[in-house]
Amino acid sequence: MLTEPTSIEGSVKFPISIDSENSGVGASSQTKGTTRKRKATHQSHKSESIGMVIEKCLLNWGIDKLFTITVDHASSNDVAIGYLRKKFNPRGGLVQNGKYLRMRCMTHIVNLIVVEGLKEINKSVERVRGLLDMWNSTYLMLNTAQNFERAFERFEEQDTNFRAELERGEGWPSVDDCDNVRNLRDFLEHFYEVTLCISGTSYVTSNIFFDELSEIDILLRDAQVNSNVDFNVMAIKMKEKYDKYWGDIDKMNLLMFVACVLDPRQKLKYLEFALSEMSSFEKACGMMQKLKESLYELFDKYKPPLHSTCSQSSVLTHVSLGEPQKKMERQMQALYKKRELKICGLMQMEIFWREKMDANREY
User: Fold this and answer.
1) CA distances from 238 to 109, 159, 187, 215, 330 (A)
2) pLDDT tens-digit series, residues 162-189
3) Which among 185, 201, 268, 347 is placed 20 to 30 Å from 194, CA to CA?
């Protein structure tokens, strides 16, 4: 019986982590140095324990072949993934020797990006309600609060102490504050929708990762040139965090691109266009070459079992792509369609003039 490689999604965390920038490296105390060595050894062993637990679970579930494992960005996960690669690869349980085994959790990175931006939030939000611990809760709060803008005016009419109470805190929300809140709500709505979309469990999500990522890239680039200074600073901080994880397309897991081109709605031409928008033309071309080579490698990997499977059974498995309806406009796709229409228009014009010249020669 053919066993297909499995992709595992989850959030593997461990409470102890080593911060190399703040670990005190270079301290003169030998005791401190010894303590740090013990902590590092302890961390390494505990991280391998995570890998052992994952291995045990997979084997108990009867999973002996792995494609990817989705984990968040933690040093302990690096060691755990290394352990799994070491254990599964000799058994032939990894696709292409585990080259694409680790997939960074997209929702975790989106969360880090938004939290980084909200650190720069101005007084407007605090005057309306106050910044909540979770950014998605902040979005939902703003989405509700902006509908009650006129209620603040009514409160003052009904209760003379209302304004005085607010003035003791962050102050009375002005018209500008309400405008800022509305703009922030609209901005956060993009990230809220992305998080809901890629966290779905009743439909395929791997094919939409790159599309959502490219939308975030455009959104942050546009926000950096916003006329509102506070908004501008927030967007710059968010773009810096975005670039830390996704700024270099060469460091992304290639399977995000593979899943994109296997979606019949996208294909290679769209991906090439999107990558050239997000990076330099040279880098985009280099990545497309790597992608094509990887597609051939993956095809060769699956070719023999697919041939034998098709001869045994002709039953097809239906996979639903029923993603949730998106309210926000897809900017990258709109740019691509605009470019394609322009190219088609130029081609049609060229055909028209060529036919006209041929007709003139015949005449």
Assistant:
1) 11, 40, 12, 14, 20
2) 666 666 656 666 667 777 778 888 888 8
3) 268
Q: Do 18 and 39 touch, CB atoms closer than 8 A?
A: yes
Distance CA 188, CA 140 (A): 9
Q: Which residues contact 151 (CB under 8 A, 6 or more apart)?
A: none
Q: pLDDT (tens digit, 9 = 90+) per residue, 253-280? A: 999 999 999 988 888 988 999 999 999 9
13 closest CA partner among 65, 86, 70, 89: 70
Q: In what order do the strands lie in the sheet with 102-104?
A: 6-9, 66-71, 102-104
Cα 88 to Cα 164: distance, rounded to the nearest angstrom = 66
pLDDT tens for each residue of 122-157: 555 665 555 555 777 778 877 887 777 777 667 766
Residue (of 252, 304, 309, 318) closest to 283 by Cα position = 252
